[in-house]
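We keep the chain:
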Amino acid sequence: MDYPKSVPSVGLVNGKFVDENPVNGTPGSLIPAAWGNSITDEVVNVVKAAGLVPDEADLGQLLLSIQKISQSDSAKYALDTGASGTYVASYAPALKALVDGVVLCFKAQNGNTGASTFSPNGLTAAPIVGAAHSALQGGEIVANGDVWVQWNSSIGTGSWVLIDSTGGAFQVANASKSQHAVALGQLAGAIGTTAPQFDSSLKLVTTAFLARSGKQLSGVVPFTGALTGGASHVGGFLYGWSATANSYSLPNTVSLAIPVGAVITLANFGSNSMAIVPQGTDKTQTPSLPATSSSFTLVSGASAEFTHVGSGTWFITGNAVNSSSADFAASIGLSGYQKLGSWIIQWGTASAIAAGGSLTVAYPLTFPNAALMTLPGNSAAVGSTANTCTVGVKYGGASQCTFYANGTVGSPNVPWIAIGY
């Protein structure tokens, strides 16, 4: 609508109405009936569109009508009548041209399975793109979902940008900053940065972080001679292999901030024993012995896991602890013993038993419960390998036994072996 410029002699001044001026004798502008009716009809149409009944005495109807129409937004909502991927909707009043920024909503009749288009009021169908300005891939629109699109003439030759779609997936551009949403396609390749070693936050875990945290071997380190442990050895497998003596100093848990649960695996492939030495105030501990700052001996062919259990203590597990465990303690010599868990094997020699006499021998270690049997070996006189007599054994409790020489040729030596628990 506009001022009645086409009406002859309407009397507009500078395109606007003016009042009559009796002093100057200038007439006022005319108000044509057609123009007055058109103004009134436009206002009445707005009132009716808002669902109100026009009332001549109500001077607030136009404002109320505009507010109601704006709140209902019914002019921008329609039902889809197209097919999957080709969405069509008719709005009232009808859209005659597209303007950048216009937002429309439609209720989808079908979901999409790939690239899609939208045509309102018979206008040329244009692509629907996601927030990344890329064609839809499928699943962004679902049947009976409400879909909001916004026209952008600068994307391609003009596209509808999917602002929201209830029940559908949402397309995002690839993340490039710390607060960006991540696209699924990015997860197939490298993304972000690996968190620092021992990080315990809720950051995204990468395979590199897993390796450094000991979830898989972080590396394999062969060495010869003396090697000082570092934080990079955590989660790794290290082995000494030279013919000369090797040694390894465990990482300093204080200066290197080694966390509880850190694990290092060590193996001795060399021909000599390997000394494993704690650093600083750190200690090592086996299942049956108290924590100690002394070195742990890893014998040739043995391996062990060293786990930091807190307070600077490295707990040792693996086959290497058998030799240091009280359950597998041993005293090796001409007489001695070997513990095998609850079982104990002991051995020795009853020397120079007088012919026809006896000799009581104390076991190297008192059996905790009982000696089950003591067996004598071949007996011979001192300095001779010839058998001289038969030998008997008398049980003497858990700490000793007595040997008897039944013969006349004197002073036999009797090797023996005992088993108990």
